[in-house]
Amino acid sequence: MLSKKKMNRINELAKKAKATGLSPEEAKEQTKLRKEYLETFRKSMKSTIESTRVFDPDGNEVTPQKLQDIQSKKKMH
């Protein structure tokens, strides 16, 4: 997860962009922070999906084979 300080800075720059606009340096900083945020989010989402198991109402595991293969490779389940 991105640090609280960086998240606050992202929000601060977004508010300033709407209100008065950003300087070229601030725009570069905003782009860099957004990129870092998205990379962190995607990594976290991928990890969550890869560790998920799916069961039908009868309690039978119906996790897609592709996901089971990833989990086996990473020795998760």
From TrEMBL:
The organism encoding this protein is Bacillus seohaeanensis
Q: Which residues form a coiled coil?
A: none
Q: Show the InterPro entries listed in the entry.
A: DUF896 (IPR009242)
Where is this protein found? Cytoplasm
| Keyword set, alphabetical order | Cytoplasm
- Region: Disordered, residue numbers: 13-32, 52-77
Q: Give the transmembrane ranges.
A: none
Upper taxonomic classification of the species? Answer: Bacteria, Bacillati, Bacillota, Bacilli, Bacillales
Highest taxon in the source lineage: Bacteria
Homology family: Belongs to the UPF0291 family.
Q: What is this protein called?
A: UPF0291 protein ACFSUL_18235
Instruction: Show the Pfam families listed in the entry.
Output: DUF896
